[in-house]
Amino acid sequence: MRLFLTQISSQSALAHLFRGSLIITIGRQYGSGGREIGKRLAERLGYDYYDTVLLEKASQGSGLSEDVIARYDERLADKWMNASLGMSGATEHHKLPLPLRVAFGQFEEIRKIGKCGRAVIVGRCADQILKEQDNVFSAFIYADMALRIARVANRNHISEDEAKKRIRNTDKNRANYYSYYTDAEWGKTDHYHLCIDSGVFGIEGVVHILETAAQNR
Question: Under DSSP, is residue 44 helix (H, G, I), strand (E, B) or coil?
Fold first, then answer.
């Protein structure tokens, strides 16, 4: 179901104004290094970097606490999903179910960032929200499961079994969230300009590839 994204088409008329101000969106499998890649790329290009900072901005704009926003960040709550399907026409944010208010707040912040450009945005459907702008370059980062398990286990000091469980749950949440709000399939190559295996190229190698692609966009 495509919720709250109908406003995107109106941005296409402004897209030509932003050609010299690229926005890079990065989708990522959990444990593939997407966040680190995004941060390094932003530093390399001198761009603003948006990941968890979107939680803070959405909190300021929606009046919700960061803890509440973090609870529903890139995940759905099954118990309200079916009940909310009939609410796509609601326009007053305070009347929306809490998870929808969280998502809508983040989407609004992404649109604001889209008007400024020179940014790297990680996750949160940014590639779809800004897809009508012709200054957007979208990438998806993936990696072999074994490599992701090792990275997640080492980073969080947990067992490989726990890391594997966390990876599966997080990827499932991200895929469901992306599909619910965009009617598109998360991680499908058709939705991105470039899909890169960070296990093959390494973190720094992926950053270099994306930097080169951005400079030649």
Answer: helix
Q: What element of type H or E holds 214? A: helix 198-215
φ, ψ of residue 25 to 5 degrees: the values are -105, 140
Between the CA of residue 79 and those of 76, 125, 177, what are the distances in Å? 9, 22, 14
pLDDT digits (tens, 9 = 90+) for 144-188: 999 999 999 999 999 999 999 999 999 999 999 999 999 999 999
Taking the C-alpha atoms of residue 4 and residue 62, their distance in angstroms, rounded to an integer, is 15
One-letter amino acid of 59 = S
pTM of the complete model: 0.82
Count how many residues are written for the chain: 217
What is the helix, strand, coil percentage profile of the chain, to 5? 60, 10, 30
